[in-house]
Amino acid sequence: MALQCGIVGLPNVGKSTLFNCLSNARAQAANFPFCTIEPNVGVITVPDERLMKLAEIDNPKRVVPTTIEIVDIAGLVKGASKGEGLGNKFLANIRNTNAIIHVLRCFENDNITHVDGTVDPVRDKGIIDTELQLKDLETIENRIGKCQKQATAGDKIAKRQYDILLQYKEALEKGLSARTVELSAEERKVVWDLNLLTDKPVLYVCNVDEASAVTGNVHTEAVKAAIADEHAEMLIVAASAEADIAELEAFEERQMFLQDMGLEESGVSRLIKAAYRLLDLQTFFTTGADESRAWTFRRGMKAPETAGIIHTDFERGFIRAEVIKYADYVELGSERACRDVGKIGIEGKEYTVEDGDIMHFLFNV
User: Fold this and answer.
1) What letter does residue 278 receive in the DSSP assignment?
2) Quick check: 300 and 329 in contact, CB under 8 A?
3) Taking CA 196 as the corner, what is the angle to CA 194 and CA 199, rounded to the nearest 5 degrees?
4) CB atoms < 10 A from the CB of 337, how many?
5) Which of 32, 59, 162, 297 sits between 20 and 30 A of 43, alpha carbons compared?
């Protein structure tokens, strides 16, 4: 699935440092490759302890993790919505992503100049928000002009669109992001093609100094308060420390470094997992002697759709799915053992696949 998270932020907040850390990320004890498909786009392995456990059980010939794409978008500046600082190109890059990772500087360092002179992550957030909101307002106003005429002429769909556009316009004019507008699933279908910048799911990453990696600091508390009314998640990461961790070759050395910091898991690993959730993605598995593999699917998918992720023929000729719950597989130790005690579910076309399901699809074409 070519779904992307875009990393945004002002210049000198640590975006590129985080992106480089992601590029060097090592999942668990195994080192999976990072692939650059454009100068600023990386395919990042998603760490998943469950896949490692399945590989331990089945000892397959190969292990294939799931991945997501991360895009490093150059630092935005004031006036980007009007084209300042190559703003149009940057905003277009954001529009092409499915979710946003917004990096905020939450550390003091006299050797790293802040673009606005002082460290104030809430102000920085406001600058980026304003630029994205202005661009969205421009999109909404352009659409309203066209939609209003159709609605007046009696077009019922256009009338529904017009009503929703007015809700967006009201929120944006108040300095609120489009994601704060509560819409039903049906209403979202009516305006799906707007692709508003501030309607994308967002993860705020507070880049702190090493001493604040566990508990945060006054800056992270300010950010937490500022996003309280948003549908957004916040993560605290010490990018400079993550860069040091990324340079360590041995898994044991990386774990010792984390323990010394008081962390159980690296910030990069937490960031990748959070980005995966941000895209509303989940994982199902296939496993056996040849291969243990993690597969990405969108939350809520039915069995035939997930079968089609493996191969289109699987979906086209879907008969049924055999499903083993991850906990049962780990407890019993093999597919045969699960089958012997009746722990394999036989599911049809209406089965909604759950995160962690171990799947075997039967099909006929």
Assistant:
1) H
2) no
3) 125
4) 13
5) 59
In this structure, what DSSP letter does residue 263 have? Answer: -
Distance CA 107, CA 25 (A): 23
CB atoms within 10 A of CB 311: 13
Give alpha helix (H) positions in the chain: 15-23, 49-58, 87-95, 121-152, 156-173, 185-190, 218-226, 239-246, 251-261, 267-278, 303-310, 312-316, 326-332, 335-340
Residue 38 parent element (H or E): strand 35-38
* 84 has a pLDDT exceeding 70: no
| Cα–Cα distance for residue pair 7/202, rounded to 1 Å | 10
Segment 164-188, tens digit of pLDDT: 999 999 999 999 999 889 999 888 8
Instruction: Evaluate whether 24 touches 245 at the Cβ level (below 8 Å).
Output: no
Match 């006299």 to its residue by tokens.
110
- Tens of pLDDT along 18-42? 888 886 654 333 334 444 444 478 8
Q: Both tokens of residue 163?
A: 């009503």
Rounded-to-integer distance, Cα 8 and Cα 203, Å: 10
Of residues 362, 355, 274, 279, the one with CA closest to residue 318:
362
Strand 291-298 to 62-64 pairing: parallel
Full strand arrangement of the beta sheet holding 4-8: 35-38, 41-45, 67-72, 4-8, 99-105, 202-207, 232-237
Cα 6–Cα 8–Cα 11 angle in degrees, nearest 5: 145
Query: Does position 209 have pLDDT exceeding 50, yes or no?
Result: yes
Contact (CB, 8 A) for 39 and 268: no
List 205's β-bridge partners, or say none. 103, 235
Query: Mean pLDDT score of the chain, rounded to an integer?
Result: 87
Say how far apart CA 161 and CA 157 lie, in whole Å. Answer: 6
